[in-house]
Amino acid sequence: MVQQEALQIEREQPRSHVPLVSLSDVALTGIYEISKILTAPNRLETTLSSVVNLLSSFMQMRHGVISLLEDDGIPDITVGGGWNEGTDARYRARLPEKAIGQVIATAVPLIAENVASHPAFSEADAQALGASEDSRVSFIGVPIRVASRVIGTLTIDRVWDGRSVFRLDSDVRFLTMVANLIGQTVQLHRVVSRDRERLMAESGRLQKELSELKPTSAGRERKRVYVDGIIGDSREIRGLLDKIMIVAKSHSPVLLRGESGTGKELIAKAIHELSPRAKGPFIKLNCAALPESVLESELFGHEKGAFTGAVGARKGRFELADKGTLFLDEIGEISPSFQAKLLRVLQEQEFERVGGSHTLKVNVRVVAATNKNLEEAVAKNEFRADLYYRISVIPVIVPSLRDRRGDIPLLANEFLDRFNRENGRDLHFNQDAMDVLMGCGFPGNVRELENCVQRTATLAQGGSIVGDDFACRHNECLSALLWRSPADAPQTRRPMEIPLPVMPPLSAISGEAANSNTVPRLPPLTVPVPAPAPAVPVRATVLDEEMSERERLVDAMERAGWVQAKAARLLGLTPRQIGYALKKHDIEIKRF
User: Fold this and answer.
1) 471 exposed, middle or buried (CB, 10 Å; 0-12, 13-18, 19+)?
2) Contact of 503 with 509, CB cutoff 8 Å
3) I need a surface site. Which of 57, 190, 206, 442 has the fewest CB within 10 A?
4) Model's pTM, two decimal places?
5) Per-residue confidence (pLDDT) for residue 326, from 0 to 100
6) For the residues of 464-506, what is the DSSP string, one character each?
7) H helix or E strand, kind and range, residue 416
C-alpha cells in the first residue's frame, strides 16, 4: 500500500529535465569568479564594484554596497553596482547608520528579515531602503576584516515577494567568505599604495641630491671617480660614475636602462662594490635565458622531491644573495604570471622554496637591467605596472658607445692590450686603423667593439693594425651591412630613432596612473649616428647595395630552411640582429 501511494505521488510530481544544482556548487562557483576579479590589476573602486555586480548572479538581492573605513574609522570608499566617480555619497546615504555601527562594533553579521520592525533600523533607514507596508525589505550585513580589525562592511538588501525562499544561514556564510577575500585584497592595495608613496619620496630625495651635484669652480679640477672595469673619460661616463657614487649609498632598487652591449652588468657590480653591502655576495641571473619553471627554482630554490630530478634541497638566488645584491638582467622578458610572484618577493623580502611551506626572510638589494621599453610594455599590459614601480625606484641610463665616441680609442687600446697579454703579441693601432674605428656606428656597443678588435688582431699579419686589416674595408663586416641605411651617403649624418631608455620621474606619475596600468608616453630620442668612414668602399648605386643585402639574407634563410637561428649562425649574426634585418627589409618568414 505504501509503495502504491509513493508511485502515485511520483506520477503527480511535475517532471523536469533541468539538473538540480546544489547550493555548495553555486557558492564554490561564485567564490571562484569573485577571486578572479579581486586578483585582476585594476583600481580598487573598480574591483569592488565588479564584485557587487557579480554577487547578484549568485544570490537574490536588490542592492549591494561595500563600505570601507580609514584607520581612524572615517568612511574611505563606498561602492555599489555600477559604481562611477562621485557616487560615494549616494551609496553611503543608503546605509543604515545604526545597523552598520553595530556590525563594525561587534564584528558579527547582522540579519534583519524585516527592516521596518528591526530595532537597529530607524524609520528613516527603512524609507531609504524602500520598505513600506506593501514592500517588505530584508537586510544582511557582514564585517570586512583584516586579522581581528574590522575595516568595512558588505551589505545587501532584498524585497520579499511572498514566493521566494531565502536561506539566510547559507547567504550569511557565502557573504562572509566574500568579505574575507575583500579584506585581503584591500590590505594588499593599501600596502602597495603606502609602499609606492614611500618609494616616490625616496626617489624624489635622491633626484634632489643628484640635481645638487655641480662641478667645482674653474680654478680647481673636479674630483674624478674611477670604477674597476669601466673604461672611459667622456662627459657621459663621468656623469654616470658620479650618479653611481650617490645611488650606491642607498638600499633602494635600481633599474639600469640601455642598449645591449653597453656594460650594464659592470655598472651593477660597481653599484654593489661601492655600497654598504660590498662585503656581501653579488649574485646575478639572466631572466631571459631560462624558462619560467626553471626560473622559479633558480630564484627561490626548491626542496627535495619538489619535482622530477630534485634529489636534494637547493638554495635559490634570493637566498644566496642575502645581505648582498641580486642582479636580474633582462627583467623585461619574464612572463606576466611570474611577474606577480616576483613582485611579492620584492615587496615583502620573503618567499617559499618550490615544494616547500616554510617562509624564508631575506635582506637583498635588487639591481635590474633591461634594454626593453618597459613603459610601452606596461601600456600594452605585457608588464605589471606595480612591478614597474617596484624595480624602477632609481633609473640609471647607461649611454651607448655612439653617445661617447671619444671613449673608443681608450676602449680599443684596452682590448688590444688584453689580447696581447693573452696571446704573447705586441700589436698596436696606427692612425688609419683608429680612424676606421672612430667612423663605425657600433650598434652592438662595447661588446661589438671588443669582438671587432679581437677578430682584427687575430688576423693581422704585421706588427701593427692598419685600416685594411678591418673586415669593413673588404665589405665583410655583416654588422655594418645590416645596420647601415643604404640611402646614406658616406659622409652624411642622420638621426636614428632608437628605443627610448629614459624613465619618466616617479614624481610625475600619479597614483591613479599607477593603478590603471598607464604610463605617460615620451617621444623617441633621436641620436646622430655617423656613417662609416670614407675609406670604406661604397657600392656604385643604392639599389645594388639594397638588393645585395636583401638577397644575402633570403639566401641564408633558404639554406637554413627558414629557421632564423640557423640562418643567423650562417651569417655570423645573433638572432636579434637577423630579426632586425628581416624586419628592416620586410622579408616575410615562410612557414612550413
Assistant:
1) middle
2) no
3) 57
4) 0.50
5) 94
6) SB-GGGSGGGGT--HHHHHHS-TT--TT-EEEEEE---PPPPG
7) helix 408-423
